[in-house]
Amino acid sequence: MEVPKLLTTQHIRYTKAKLINDGVAIYPCSPQDHRALTRTLTDKGEEYHTFTLSEERTLRVVIRGIPEGITPSEVQLDLEQQGFPGAIVHRMAGRQNRQEMPLVLVQAQADQESILQVTRCCSLVVRVERQRKQQVATQCHRCQRFGHGQSRCTAAPKCVKCGENHSTHECKKSRDTPARCANCAGPHPASYLGCPKYPKSKQTKTPVKTHTPTPTQTAANTQPTPAPTPGTSYADMTKKDTTTNTS
Known about the structure:
InterPro entries: Pre_C2HC_dom. This is Pre-C2HC domain-containing protein. Pfam families: PRE_C2HC (PF07530). Residues 72-138 form the Pre-C2HC domain. By secondary structure, the protein is an alpha+beta fold. The chain has three domains: 3-48; 55-130, Alpha-Beta Plaits (2-Layer Sandwich); 135-203, no CATH class. Helix content is 20%, strand content 17%. It has six helices and eight strands. The protein has helices at 3-9, 31-43, 72-81, 200-204, 215-221, 234-240; strands at 14-20, 23-28, 59-64, 88-93, 100-108, 120-121, 124-125, 127-130. It has a four-stranded antiparallel beta sheet, with helices on one face. Strands 1-2 form a two-stranded antiparallel ribbon. It has a two-stranded antiparallel ribbon with strand order 6-7. Strand 4 and strand 5 (100-108) form a beta hairpin. The two termini are 38 Å apart. Mean pLDDT is 82; it is low at 202-222 and 240-247.
Protein backbone atom coordinates (compact mmCIF):
# COMPACT_ATOMS: atom_id res chain seq x y z
CA MET A 1 0.00 0.00 0.00
CA GLU A 2 1.42 3.40 -1.02
CA VAL A 3 0.52 5.57 1.96
CA PRO A 4 1.04 9.06 0.44
CA LYS A 5 -0.96 8.15 -2.67
CA LEU A 6 -3.78 6.64 -0.60
CA LEU A 7 -4.04 9.67 1.67
CA THR A 8 -3.96 12.08 -1.26
CA THR A 9 -6.63 10.30 -3.30
CA GLN A 10 -8.92 10.07 -0.26
CA HIS A 11 -8.28 13.74 0.67
CA ILE A 12 -7.09 12.74 4.14
CA ARG A 13 -4.89 15.36 5.78
CA TYR A 14 -2.00 14.31 8.00
CA THR A 15 0.94 15.96 9.72
CA LYS A 16 3.43 13.15 9.10
CA ALA A 17 3.85 9.47 8.27
CA LYS A 18 6.89 7.46 9.37
CA LEU A 19 8.17 3.90 9.28
CA ILE A 20 8.06 1.98 12.57
CA ASN A 21 8.96 -1.59 13.52
CA ASP A 22 5.73 -3.19 12.35
CA GLY A 23 4.44 -0.81 9.68
CA VAL A 24 3.78 2.89 9.09
CA ALA A 25 2.57 5.38 11.70
CA ILE A 26 0.22 8.05 10.33
CA TYR A 27 -0.71 11.20 12.25
CA PRO A 28 -4.03 12.68 10.98
CA CYS A 29 -4.67 16.40 11.33
CA SER A 30 -8.13 16.19 12.90
CA PRO A 31 -10.69 13.76 14.33
CA GLN A 32 -12.48 13.88 10.97
CA ASP A 33 -9.29 12.85 9.16
CA HIS A 34 -8.74 10.13 11.76
CA ARG A 35 -12.19 8.65 11.12
CA ALA A 36 -11.79 8.91 7.35
CA LEU A 37 -8.46 7.11 7.54
CA THR A 38 -9.76 4.23 9.67
CA ARG A 39 -12.77 3.83 7.36
CA THR A 40 -10.50 3.71 4.33
CA LEU A 41 -8.15 1.14 5.87
CA THR A 42 -11.09 -1.00 6.96
CA ASP A 43 -12.68 -0.86 3.49
CA LYS A 44 -9.38 -1.94 1.92
CA GLY A 45 -8.96 -4.81 4.38
CA GLU A 46 -5.72 -3.45 5.81
CA GLU A 47 -4.58 -4.50 9.29
CA TYR A 48 -4.02 -1.58 11.64
CA HIS A 49 -4.34 -0.38 15.20
CA THR A 50 -5.15 3.06 16.50
CA PHE A 51 -6.13 4.88 19.67
CA THR A 52 -9.36 6.25 21.06
CA LEU A 53 -10.03 9.90 20.29
CA SER A 54 -10.17 12.06 23.41
CA GLU A 55 -13.78 12.97 22.63
CA GLU A 56 -14.72 9.27 22.53
CA ARG A 57 -13.01 8.16 25.72
CA THR A 58 -15.07 6.46 28.38
CA LEU A 59 -15.00 6.44 32.17
CA ARG A 60 -13.33 3.23 33.32
CA VAL A 61 -14.08 2.07 36.86
CA VAL A 62 -13.55 -1.12 38.86
CA ILE A 63 -16.31 -2.55 41.03
CA ARG A 64 -14.95 -4.59 43.93
CA GLY A 65 -16.98 -7.27 45.68
CA ILE A 66 -18.64 -9.00 42.71
CA PRO A 67 -18.10 -12.78 43.16
CA GLU A 68 -17.31 -15.03 40.21
CA GLY A 69 -20.83 -16.51 40.21
CA ILE A 70 -22.35 -13.23 39.03
CA THR A 71 -22.04 -12.68 35.28
CA PRO A 72 -21.04 -9.40 33.60
CA SER A 73 -24.50 -9.25 31.97
CA GLU A 74 -26.14 -9.33 35.41
CA VAL A 75 -23.93 -6.45 36.55
CA GLN A 76 -24.71 -4.54 33.35
CA LEU A 77 -28.46 -4.96 33.88
CA ASP A 78 -28.24 -3.85 37.50
CA LEU A 79 -26.26 -0.73 36.55
CA GLU A 80 -28.78 0.09 33.83
CA GLN A 81 -31.58 -0.09 36.40
CA GLN A 82 -29.60 2.31 38.59
CA GLY A 83 -29.42 4.86 35.77
CA PHE A 84 -26.21 3.92 33.95
CA PRO A 85 -27.28 2.66 30.49
CA GLY A 86 -24.75 1.53 27.93
CA ALA A 87 -22.14 0.32 30.41
CA ILE A 88 -19.75 -2.37 29.15
CA VAL A 89 -18.75 -4.88 31.83
CA HIS A 90 -15.86 -7.35 31.84
CA ARG A 91 -14.82 -9.84 34.51
CA MET A 92 -11.23 -9.22 35.63
CA ALA A 93 -8.67 -12.00 35.92
CA GLY A 94 -5.13 -12.35 37.23
CA ARG A 95 -2.46 -11.45 34.67
CA GLN A 96 -0.31 -14.51 35.27
CA ASN A 97 -2.73 -17.34 36.04
CA ARG A 98 -5.84 -15.81 34.38
CA GLN A 99 -7.92 -16.86 37.39
CA GLU A 100 -11.13 -14.85 37.71
CA MET A 101 -11.24 -12.32 40.55
CA PRO A 102 -14.18 -10.75 42.46
CA LEU A 103 -13.71 -7.58 40.41
CA VAL A 104 -15.36 -6.26 37.26
CA LEU A 105 -14.15 -3.54 34.93
CA VAL A 106 -16.87 -1.16 33.76
CA GLN A 107 -16.65 1.23 30.80
CA ALA A 108 -19.28 3.89 31.42
CA GLN A 109 -20.10 7.07 29.55
CA ALA A 110 -17.73 9.93 30.30
CA ASP A 111 -20.49 12.01 31.93
CA GLN A 112 -21.55 9.22 34.32
CA GLU A 113 -19.24 10.24 37.17
CA SER A 114 -21.97 9.45 39.70
CA ILE A 115 -21.28 5.75 39.13
CA LEU A 116 -18.41 6.24 41.58
CA GLN A 117 -21.04 6.78 44.30
CA VAL A 118 -22.66 3.36 43.79
CA THR A 119 -22.51 1.25 46.97
CA ARG A 120 -24.76 -1.68 46.03
CA CYS A 121 -24.86 -3.89 42.95
CA CYS A 122 -26.69 -7.19 42.41
CA SER A 123 -27.91 -6.99 46.04
CA LEU A 124 -24.31 -6.84 47.31
CA VAL A 125 -22.37 -4.11 49.08
CA VAL A 126 -19.61 -3.03 46.69
CA ARG A 127 -16.92 -0.40 46.30
CA VAL A 128 -16.42 1.50 43.04
CA GLU A 129 -13.16 3.23 42.16
CA ARG A 130 -11.43 4.57 39.08
CA GLN A 131 -9.28 2.09 37.24
CA ARG A 132 -5.69 2.50 38.31
CA LYS A 133 -3.04 3.31 35.76
CA GLN A 134 -1.28 0.16 34.63
CA GLN A 135 2.25 -0.39 35.88
CA VAL A 136 3.04 -2.64 32.93
CA ALA A 137 3.07 -1.98 29.19
CA THR A 138 -0.28 -2.11 27.43
CA GLN A 139 -0.67 -5.36 25.48
CA CYS A 140 -3.28 -6.12 22.85
CA HIS A 141 -5.29 -9.24 23.70
CA ARG A 142 -6.00 -9.71 19.99
CA CYS A 143 -2.60 -9.63 18.24
CA GLN A 144 -0.51 -9.81 21.48
CA ARG A 145 1.71 -6.87 20.45
CA PHE A 146 2.58 -4.15 22.91
CA GLY A 147 1.59 -0.49 22.91
CA HIS A 148 -2.13 -0.64 22.09
CA GLY A 149 -5.38 -2.31 23.17
CA GLN A 150 -7.57 -4.83 21.39
CA SER A 151 -10.62 -2.59 20.96
CA ARG A 152 -8.85 -0.55 18.24
CA CYS A 153 -6.93 -3.38 16.56
CA THR A 154 -7.88 -5.15 13.32
CA ALA A 155 -4.81 -7.40 13.05
CA ALA A 156 -5.17 -11.16 12.71
CA PRO A 157 -5.66 -12.76 16.14
CA LYS A 158 -2.78 -14.50 17.90
CA CYS A 159 -3.07 -16.84 20.88
CA VAL A 160 -1.36 -15.68 24.08
CA LYS A 161 -0.58 -19.29 25.00
CA CYS A 162 0.55 -21.07 21.83
CA GLY A 163 1.20 -18.17 19.44
CA GLU A 164 -0.94 -19.62 16.66
CA ASN A 165 -3.43 -17.71 14.48
CA HIS A 166 -6.52 -18.06 16.64
CA SER A 167 -7.98 -16.20 19.60
CA THR A 168 -6.85 -17.30 23.05
CA HIS A 169 -10.26 -18.61 24.13
CA GLU A 170 -10.23 -21.01 21.15
CA CYS A 171 -6.88 -22.55 22.12
CA LYS A 172 -6.75 -26.34 22.56
CA LYS A 173 -3.24 -26.44 24.08
CA SER A 174 -2.96 -28.79 27.04
CA ARG A 175 -1.14 -27.89 30.25
CA ASP A 176 1.60 -30.37 29.35
CA THR A 177 2.34 -28.70 26.01
CA PRO A 178 5.00 -25.95 26.25
CA ALA A 179 3.83 -22.40 25.66
CA ARG A 180 5.08 -20.47 22.62
CA CYS A 181 5.29 -16.68 22.47
CA ALA A 182 3.53 -14.94 19.58
CA ASN A 183 6.10 -12.12 19.68
CA CYS A 184 9.51 -13.83 20.03
CA ALA A 185 8.65 -17.55 19.55
CA GLY A 186 10.19 -18.29 22.95
CA PRO A 187 8.92 -21.02 25.35
CA HIS A 188 6.59 -18.78 27.34
CA PRO A 189 3.18 -17.08 26.99
CA ALA A 190 3.10 -13.77 25.11
CA SER A 191 2.11 -12.06 28.38
CA TYR A 192 5.39 -13.05 30.11
CA LEU A 193 7.06 -9.87 31.42
CA GLY A 194 10.51 -11.36 30.84
CA CYS A 195 9.91 -11.64 27.09
CA PRO A 196 12.74 -10.07 25.01
CA LYS A 197 10.09 -8.14 23.07
CA TYR A 198 8.62 -6.55 26.20
CA PRO A 199 9.19 -2.75 26.12
CA LYS A 200 12.23 -2.30 28.34
CA SER A 201 11.53 1.38 29.08
CA LYS A 202 8.44 0.36 31.07
CA GLN A 203 10.55 -1.84 33.34
CA THR A 204 13.28 0.69 34.09
CA LYS A 205 11.13 3.79 34.61
CA THR A 206 11.45 5.15 38.17
CA PRO A 207 9.76 8.10 39.91
CA VAL A 208 11.59 11.44 39.97
CA LYS A 209 12.67 12.50 43.46
CA THR A 210 12.47 16.18 44.31
CA HIS A 211 14.92 16.21 47.23
CA THR A 212 18.70 16.45 46.83
CA PRO A 213 20.39 13.53 48.60
CA THR A 214 23.59 13.89 50.58
CA PRO A 215 26.69 12.05 49.30
CA THR A 216 25.97 9.26 51.79
CA GLN A 217 22.37 8.98 50.62
CA THR A 218 23.51 9.01 47.02
CA ALA A 219 25.88 6.13 47.57
CA ALA A 220 23.28 4.16 49.49
CA ASN A 221 20.42 4.83 47.11
CA THR A 222 22.17 4.28 43.80
CA GLN A 223 23.29 0.69 44.20
CA PRO A 224 22.82 -1.02 40.86
CA THR A 225 19.77 -3.19 40.58
CA PRO A 226 20.76 -6.81 39.88
CA ALA A 227 20.22 -7.51 36.21
CA PRO A 228 18.35 -10.60 35.03
CA THR A 229 20.67 -13.54 34.39
CA PRO A 230 21.35 -13.77 30.64
CA GLY A 231 19.70 -16.77 29.08
CA THR A 232 17.14 -17.25 31.84
CA SER A 233 14.09 -18.81 30.25
CA TYR A 234 10.47 -18.83 31.22
CA ALA A 235 10.81 -22.52 32.15
CA ASP A 236 13.72 -21.71 34.50
CA MET A 237 11.68 -19.01 36.17
CA THR A 238 8.71 -21.30 36.71
CA LYS A 239 10.91 -23.94 38.34
CA LYS A 240 11.50 -21.46 41.18
CA ASP A 241 7.84 -20.58 41.49
CA THR A 242 5.56 -23.59 41.18
CA THR A 243 2.44 -21.39 41.44
CA THR A 244 2.90 -19.92 37.93
CA ASN A 245 0.42 -21.27 35.38
CA THR A 246 1.61 -21.23 31.74
CA SER A 247 -1.54 -22.54 30.16
